[in-house]
Amino acid sequence: MVLPNWVPYASYREKLFKGTAKTLEATPGLRMIAATAAFNPEASTYSTYADITTWTVTDASGFAAKGEAIANETVTLVTANGTVASDFDDVTFASSASGPTNIRYVNVVLSAAVTANMELVAWASTGSDKSVQSGSLTVNIDADGFIIST
User: Fold this and answer.
1) How many Cα neighbours within 13 Å face the side chain of 10?
2) Residue 147 near residue 33 (C-beta atoms within 8 A)
3) Which range among 47-51, 76-80, 133-137 has the greatest average pLDDT?
4) CA 58 to CA 36: how far, in whole Å?
């Protein structure tokens, strides 16, 4: 499933403009966290994982409520059109017989360690509830990039 419409959180954009944001290619790394349909992605008010924990997806079988690690982050200047694009490997949420059936949103957070203070970077909608009970769920990152800035 390709999710081309990522929405950067305002708090992360503000840090980018102030020059205080951690870069997407540097330590500490990124994680992708699933959320339910009840999540109301108020991109202008949320800034950390603690702000969205009410809606993160979990189950009794150990589904990763605090997300999957993201690998191979890159940031590229596209000189042909003057944009900057960030990209990373596709992320797979593993299949689980008793896993969640209500994944509606995914969030990218900036942190290798799982803490309440993980910084929110961006979110995207899956369009409808997705399940991992009958197979894994792979989020394919658009070939043009994850966040594109002009």
Assistant:
1) 6
2) no
3) 47-51
4) 10
Domain residue extents for the chain: 7-149
First to last CA, the chain: 25
Phi, psi of 129 (to 5 degrees): -65, 135
114 phi/psi in degrees, rounded to 5: -90, 110
CA–CA distance, 85 with 74 (Å, rounded to integer): 8
What would the pLDDT profile of 70-109 be if each residue is shown by its tens digit? 888 888 877 777 777 778 888 888 887 777 788 899 998 8
- Per-residue pLDDT of 9-48, as tens digits, reads 888 888 878 878 776 666 567 888 889 888 988 767 899 9
The reported pTM is 0.83
Per-residue tokens: 143: 């070939």
Contacts (Cβ under 8 Å, ≥6 apart) of 35: 52, 55, 56, 57, 103, 104, 105, 106, 107, 123
**Cα 90–95–96 angle (5° rounding)?**
145
Q: CA-CA distance, 15 to 50, in Å (whole number)?
A: 18
The span from the CA of 73 to the CA of 126, in Å, is 21
